[in-house]
Amino acid sequence: MGSKISLDALTALETIERMGSFAAAAAQLRRVPSALTYTMGRLEDDLGVRLFDRSGRRASLTPAGRELLEEGRTLLALADQIERRVQQVARGWEVELRIALDLTLDASALLPLVAEFDGEKSGTRVRLSYEVLAGTWDALQSGRADLVIGANGEPVSQAGLSLRRVNPLPFVFAVAPAHPLASMREPLAPAEIQRYRAVAVADTARNQPARSTGLLLGQESLTVPDFAAKVAAQRAGLGVGYLPAPIARAEHEAGRLVIKQVAEPKLESFQYMAWKTASKGKALAWFLGRLDTGACTALVRTSVAG
């Protein structure tokens, strides 16, 4: 059963209310007044309600007409939005570009590039999000993201993916000044570290096996949601662990953490920018054209703020 309300009728109703009369609305829509009167009469008959109170010199909306107008404006805006999106896609621009960054990167550092992209007037919405460890690859392969930046390790499968290697991010081991490991002789042996709880950021993978990094076999761990919580926990002496070198150095210089040399340091792993090879949208191509190795390195967090 088709709807009794057409976009044409809603447009006529909205124009009548906005212009103040049938005659002015007809002129605005380039239609004869009798055609507009027929459209509104037909709509009233189809709905079985009166939309206009014609008892006075000027037709005014009834409560039912006012409700239809308010809801109708929402539908008209949605229809206009759909029309613009269809035209946008036809021109090769995505409706939305979803960029997932590894939590070691700072999304706010990407905002100047987003501002530059706005100058393209593409209509593409940009959505930024964070992922951790295998979560970056999972977001790309499951369709939660169109582009990932800072993905570390190797994807479960490279089939259908395009990869661009960026500089590895060094990690260093850090503890609170009052933690027992802070006063121990360096380099710290794995057996010494294993005795104390580690602080780890939770992997955000949903469909792939979760990963952990920097944990020793049998080591107790405290899992937190982000780097701000990880740093706070390590500052408080609730655990130890590896931090991106820029963050650890800032904390060390502020006297909040102590960097310790370890006998078996965490191995550096390359980070990647990755996207699905089949993706051909103009917005993705625009960002890929500007995100070179230097631009990605500039996104690395230097503190837990942001």
Describe the structure.
- This protein has 306 residues and is an alpha/beta fold.
- The protein folds into three domains: 7-90, Winged helix-like DNA-binding domain superfamily/Winged helix DNA-binding domain (Arc Repressor Mutant, subunit A, Orthogonal Bundle), CATH 1.10.10; 96-168 and 270-297, D-Maltodextrin-Binding Protein, domain 2 (3-Layer(aba) Sandwich), CATH 3.40.190.10; 171-260, D-Maltodextrin-Binding Protein, domain 2 (3-Layer(aba) Sandwich).
- Helix content is 39%, strand content 18%.
- The protein has eleven helices and twelve strands.
- It has helices at 7-19, 22-29, 33-47, 63-90, 111-118, 134-142, 190-194, 227-235, 245-253, 282-290, 293-297, and strands spanning 52-53, 60-61, 96-102, 125-131, 147-152, 161-166, 171-175, 198-201, 221-224, 241-244, 258-260, 271-276.
- The strands form four sheets. A five-stranded mixed β-sheet has the order 4-3-5-12-6. A three-stranded antiparallel β-sheet has the order 10-7-11.
- β1 (52-53) and β2 (60-61) form a beta hairpin.
- α1 (7-19) packs across α2 (22-29) and α2 packs across α3 (33-47).
- The longest helix has 28 residues, at 63-90.
- The protein is elongated.
- The two termini are 52 Å apart.
- The model has no long low-confidence stretch (mean pLDDT 88).
